[in-house]
Structures are given as C-alpha cells and as structure tokens.
C-alpha cells in the first residue's frame, strides 16, 4: 500500500485501453501524438524567439496562447484520471447511480457542472468513468454539462455577460445534457448503440457509498511511491486524449491564422444563417472552453446575439473533433461518436434560435 495511492489500480480491459498498441505486445510509434507534439513545440519556440513573421507568427501565437490557457486543465485532468484508476468500480457506480435511470443521469450532469476542469480535462475523466462502468448516457451527460460550466469559467462568464444570462446558459445546458443522456441510454437499451462492456450486472446491488468512502480514505497514501503511481497511471490513461488535443491545437492555430477572431461579431449575427455559420465556426475552432468563452461573450455583447453565444459554447462541445475522435477510440464505435452531434446539435440550434428573440 505504500507504493500506491489506494491499494492497487484495477486492471483495464484490453478492448478499451488508452494504449492498446502497447498492451498488444507490439509497440508502434504514435505518429499522431509525436508529430502533433513536435509541431506544437516548434511553433511555441518560434513565438518565444520571434523567429517568424506573417501568418506563421499568427499560427505560432495561436499555439502559444492555447497551450498557456489549457495546460492547467489538462494537468488536473491527468491527476483526476490517475486517482480514478485507484477507485473501485463499485464506488463509481455508488456515486453516479445506476445507468439507464433518471437519477443516474442527473447525478452525472451535476458532477459535470461542479467539476472545475476545462473541456479536455473533463474528456479524460469522462472516458475513465466509462471504463469504470458508467453508462453511455451518464458519460454523455457528464461531458455535455461540463466544459464551460466549471466554477472558474462561470465567474468569467458572469463578468463578461452578466449573471442572468450566465444562469440561463447553465440551466439550459443542463437540460440538454439530461435529455441527451436519457436518449443515449434509451438507444443502448434498444440495442441501437453498444452496451458498456465494463458496466456492472444489473442484478448486482450497489454497495453502500459511505462504507466504501471510509475504506478508500483509509488506504490513501501520500508517499512518493503513491504519487508516482498516480502520475504514471494518469499519463497512461490520458495519452489518447492528449494526442488529439495537440492535433486540435495545431488545427485551431491554422484557422486562427486565416480567420480573424474579431470577424465573428460581424459575420455571425442573430439570424438563421448566422446560427448555421456559428455552428460551423464552433465545430472548426473550438479547442478548449477557455478559448471559446471570450468569443461567445463577444457574440453576446457586440453582435447582440445571445443565441449565437450559447450555440458557440454548446456546438463546440457537441461537434468538437477532439471529443468525437476520443469517444470513437475509447468506445470503438464511429456510430456512438457521431450520435453525439446528431442528438445534441438539433437541441442546441432550437434553444439558440429561441434565445435570439430575447436579444438585448
């Protein structure tokens, strides 16, 4: 116990490992990870040295700004993933409740709102919850409710657009998360989507929460060996997310170099066409919640389009290429990954269209 945070990490199923190539016995180079990392390091260095100009400097500045903004959220995500690796599956089920139930979806939504991480830190934790037995609907509700609803970003949103609109956005995003979670679980029950192979048997009654928490707390260790184990498992479990995150940073930096952010307020007004263009822009540009928040606030304050502001925040969550690819890799299903925008985006568009009627 002296070498681990909480007894021993539970073995991960091979089919859902974040490092499948390593566990298969043949270590193949992760070209996406190392290529994206090399590109980010190169452009970050270019910005620090000032050895670039024109569009290349704009791209380097984009990488510099995005990495500086999101690093802490990713670091916290790695820590949470490492800690979750030592949490028994029965405790996760006891905290989130049974999948396929309204109470379970509500618990997952609340957990997403109150966990203070950026979108990609949340993504790491969400995939780990899936591997610990959370239902597909719970994971999706957790992801949809989370990215910009953290405490720190909520305070920023209040400062940028005011308390009433911030509260409205939070409540509406939670409603969409709950509806989407119920739809996903219903699709699983009808065999339209695959069942989580790591889920506990429905016939097994969940163990009481409090005794499990007490037992886990009694096993906690802060010795160097335990901290190293948390770091090791966190990096291992987050590798799949990090590679897509770095790729997303490069892609977003290219878009930033070609499309000025200031143009959003002029191009994407409170019209139906503006909503569609906003959805497209959010799909391409959304990389981290911290980056999308000021842009969404600008759409509210300069374009006078609260619906577009809400859409920019939520459409990025539903259509973010990083999130879709990580879901596909974790759950081994393009169908499951593409169901996320299919279920969430129509709801977001409808709510955004209604919100624009209340433009200030």
From TrEMBL:
Protein name (record): Permease
Broad class of where this protein is predominantly found: membrane
Family: Belongs to the UPF0718 family.
PANTHER family: UPF0718 PROTEIN YCGR (PTHR34184)
Source lineage: Bacteria, Pseudomonadati, Pseudomonadota, Gammaproteobacteria, Cellvibrionales
Residues that span the membrane, as ranges: 31-57, 69-88, 108-127, 139-161, 167-188, 241-259, 271-289, 310-327, 339-359
GO cellular component, one term: plasma membrane
Keyword tags: Cell membrane, Membrane, Transmembrane, Transmembrane helix
Pfam families registered for this protein in UniProt: ArsP_1
Subcellular localization(s) per the UniProt record: Cell membrane
Topology in membrane: Multi-pass membrane protein
Taxonomy, superkingdom: Bacteria
């Amino acid at each position: 116990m002296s070498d681990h945070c909480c007894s021993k990490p539970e073995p991960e199923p091979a089919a859902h490992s974040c490092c499948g190539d390593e566990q298969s016995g043949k270590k193949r180079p992760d070209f996406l990870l190392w290529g994206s990392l090399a590109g980010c390091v190169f452009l970050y260095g270019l910005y620090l040295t000032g050895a670039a100009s024109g569009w290349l400097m704009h791209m380097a500045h984009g990488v510099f700004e995005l990495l500086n903004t999101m690093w802490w959220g990713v670091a916290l995500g790695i820590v949470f993933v490492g800690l979750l690796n030592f949490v028994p599956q029965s405790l996760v089920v006891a905290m989130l409740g049974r999948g396929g139930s309204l109470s379970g979806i509500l618990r997952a939504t609340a957990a997403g709102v109150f966990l203070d991480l950026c979108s990609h830190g949340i993504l790491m934790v969400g995939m780990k919850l899936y591997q610990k037995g959370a239902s597909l609907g719970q994971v999706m509700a957790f992801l949809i409710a989370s990215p910009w609803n953290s405490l720190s970003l909520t305070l920023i949103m209040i400062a940028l657009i005011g308390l009433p609109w911030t509260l409205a956005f939070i409540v509406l995003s939670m409603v969409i998360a709950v509806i989407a979670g119920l739809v996903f679980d219903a699709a699983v029950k009808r065999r339209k989507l695959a069942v989580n192979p790591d889920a506990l048997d429905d016939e097994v009654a969940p163990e009481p929460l409090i005794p499990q928490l007490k037992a886990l707390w009694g096993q906690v260790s802060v010795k160097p060996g335990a901290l190293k184990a948390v770091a090791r498992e966190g990096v291992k479990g987050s590798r799949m997310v990090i590679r897509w995150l770095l790729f997303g940073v490069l892609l977003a930096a290219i878009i930033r170099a070609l499309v000025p952010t200031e143009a959003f307020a002029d191009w994407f007004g409170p019209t139906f066409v503006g909503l569609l263009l906003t959805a497209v822009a959010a799909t391409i540009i959304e990389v981290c919640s911290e980056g999308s928040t000021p842009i969404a606030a600008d759409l509210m304050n300069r374009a006078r389009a609260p619906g577009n502001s809400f859409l920019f925040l939520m459409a990025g969550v539903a259509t973010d290429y990083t999130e879709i690819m990580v879901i596909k890799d974790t759950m081994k299903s393009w169908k499951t990954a593409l169901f996320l925008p299919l279920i969430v985006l129509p709801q977001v568009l409808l709510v955004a269209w209604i919100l624009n009627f209340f433009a200030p």
